[in-house]
Queue: 3 jobs
Job 1
Amino acid sequence: MDKVHIVIAGKRNTGKSSLINCIIGQEKAVVSDIAGTTTDPVKKSYEIPGVASVVFIDTAGIDDEGTLGQLRIGKTLDAIRQADAAILVISHNRFGEEEEKLMSEFQKSGQPFLVLHNQSDLEPLAESLRHEIKTRWHADILPFSTLQPERETLMKAIAQLVGKPKQRSLLGDIIRPGQLILLVTPIDSEAPTGRLILPQVKMLRDILDNHCMSIVLQPEEIPTFFTRTPIRPDLAVTDSQVFGIVARQIPPEIPLTSFSIVFARHKGNFARYVEGTPHISRLQDGDRILMLESCSHHVSCEDIGRIKIPSLLRKHTGKQLEFDFIAGLDRIPRPFTDYALIIQCGGCMVTARQLRNRLQPAIDAGIPVSNYGMALAWMQGIFQRATAPFLGKETQ
């Protein structure tokens, strides 16, 4: 379900942007003979048939200069740590300190990587460099030219690099073919015009992939559904922000959870969320809470992460709490130790790797972590019911 993120790294003017244009077959990335044309990381989506949906990340040169250059290098390193695989682009047989730094970063992040010797039409790959890369770094190096591309060879190398990602089902281990799943999807000011949000779309696809049936309705339609039909769903999944209302209307014998909790489990860290959520009841006056969103969006009065959850936390605990809000994969300005609790959204817009890497430093520092859906379930008094469908199941 997650796209595979492949970072393209190297020095300035080695042809990183030209490489992406060659792969995609379109002039998507700006190219120039002037070193440093690419500044901030730029993402380009592409489908490799039979392999995966990928996102290529074009980065600034690792040898960028000046104060702004150092900031751009920092963003390049951040992009590497968030990626699933990497391609190091070199040219003219130049392999020095900067390239070694990148290779070390790939290995430290546990990423598969490929070295590409670009502009091989101008200067062929030296056999001595091939041997060094193979023996010292245990990596393959591929001669290439964006002007005379052997595109099929490159695509095969990329396919081998990423492999065929194992697609882990959202619900596959708790539902069986032929079962009926009820999806409760409120349509309010936070809902996108004319469409469903990504978690709802992914859930529908997962239900179909598992050969199950789904019924989709809004919270106010639940009583009518149970009045007009004898159907009893095998599982109900709701938007977390209406947890309390839905829990009172869904018969207690029907398992109930939320989109956010399903994605929390799918992305990993589920056990940590279960462990950290009860800390809500131990919050004290002056405690600071970090709210992590995986996407950037317009904030309205019904925003679940920035308005509703903070308000409910203050009301539930009766404490004066402070909040910081971070969107996307932006840097977190404070040390994790400044926070009494971290609450992460479902993470539908980021990969499992990105989400785990984002939270791991906080977990290592002993900071409790929770999830939007679990936090709301705890404050509504239905935490056990909302997590019960997954307890005893293997989690990451």
Job 2
Amino acid sequence: MERNRISAILEKELVVALGCTEPVAIALAAATAKSHAEGEIRQIVVMASGNIIKNAKSVGIPGMSGKGLDFAAAIGAVGGNPERKLELLDGLTKDDEKKAFQLIEEGKIEAGQADTPKRLYIEVKVKTDQKEARVIISDNHSNITLIEVDGEAVFRGGCENVRIQSEEEELEALTLDEIYAWVLQAELSELALVKRSIELNKVIGLEGLSGDYGLNVGRTIQENVKKGILSDDLATAAMSLAAAGSDARMAGSTLPVMANTGSGNQGIAVTLPVVAAAEKLQVSEDVMIRAVALSHLVTIHIKSKFGRLSALCGVTAAGMGASAAIVYLLGGTLQQVKAAVQNTIGNVSGMICDGAKAGCAMKVSTCSNVAVQSALLAMSHQEIQSTDGFIHDDVEKSIEAFCTLGNEGTRQTDEWILKLMMEK
């Protein structure tokens, strides 16, 4: 694979995002619709796929006290800047929040589940005293496929299925061998976005360690290290920093992060365990940046087959990327990188996604711990064998099996998770 193709993949899949990407995507659709319908808002209707509902239902929105589909649509319509894409909620004010709550209190917001086979689908209609606009986002959190004004299409774009784009075909062609070789040979100038992901995501990790966010998973781990209850080792360093970043993000921190394949939480789980391990091992900045690049690319490779939303937790894929990167930090070989990925697949494959929420930080912590454990086993030449479960001799076939489980094997699970969440 040509060097510039992998650089292009990084540029596409590493995107700065403010706030959990599901409610932000709803806000983007609403803000875009409102930008095409001047006048006073009479009604906003949000219809979304089950996976979007699951991830937008309970998670915090940056700087705001409101949650849920209705609030995400309302705040997007009254205060979002659609030109800023996934950073559209930056700069919101308490006055914007008050206007959004007022729309909800006046019964002007409706939200429901769309009848669609797509896992990532958002449709928002904004009716004002002058116009009516409809916007559809599908397959990708910022992929606007339709804008209608008064029933007439004014924009048809995006991609109805981003996986058949040329870029996605390039993703399908990736292998761990090619990724590893590229990371070793890449110029540092090609890794500027990776370096930026380290800078951005570390800031929110440190914020989570110093502030009071969500379940305070990361901070609690750190406090217990100081008490001597937990040891100050590679695993706890990775767990505490990564979980703290998720604590802050899921609780509505206003700090932006670098998302990986559409997920900010996943971006945190890809970078921060590796950064913490790199700092603990006192490696050079060059080695750390290359390790994080490996983590990003392995995760992108897996997610390109796994899908952007699934009944399984996407942080498991991030753990696979992080495990490969930690082997690299420890001076391991390509074969040991593959073994670490195999070990992680064999460990966390069954972790379900029950929506974006404060508890996600615990899953980030778990997968960060597994990443370290899998890497250390690989460095000791220990690897889950093909006699175990659905693991194959070939890591690429194990990845395919894991992704088949996520895409095909959990459809009923996904339905039940959403049903159980909505019945509470």
Job 3
Amino acid sequence: MTQQNSSSVDNRPKNYLGSSLLFFSIFFTATIEATILFALFWASFEIRYKFGRLWCMLMLWIMKITVGLKYEVEGLENVNPEQAAIIFSNHQSAWETLALRVILPPQSAVIKRELLYLPLWGWSLLLLKSIVIDKRNPRGALKSLVKQGTQYLNEGICVLIFPEGTRAAPRDVLPFNAGGSVLAHHSGYPVIPVAHNAGDFWPRYSFFKYAGTIKVKIGAPIETKGRKAAEINAEAEAWIRKAMAEM
């Protein structure tokens, strides 16, 4: 596939019908899913998470039907479902926010506070033990991440972090923020690096989605005990950059 960048023009044929069907499917089913999650507020996290994961599985199936978007995973043997870990993933689209809940063990995702302004959708994320941070208050955001992240890790729940902090253009990897590595340094839990090329098929800020197979690579756990946050961050970022270059 021809490499893209943030300034290039995408000349691929536009799938108007498929992209429209996918958009309305997400909008319609997400509203139902959020409503049911609220009805399950009394249930355990495990039950609520399983329901949320089923919705993500449904979305991946709908993507395959409407726009021909599939995925393949390499390195799943590096994930121990019985061992909590901090997941570092590059961020290019909304696809990985859904797919990683299906591919990887139960996880608490780090989300920005602005998502809570979305009625039902944003509020339902709180029922999945999301870690809410305020990017306008970096010090407070870091404290929340370390405190809540360590708590969830100790409960056996993985923590999903997009260390770039925002979505990057296809094939780009932005410099990593330090929050995730600080959590790893303080908690001692391993970091699992994940790389994918979802932006090639689900470009950021684009209504159109394209047929193809997204590649997901999962690296071996990075040990963090006794290591400085900067070392952890550098190793994870280097692995993801190398994995992206090989795609």
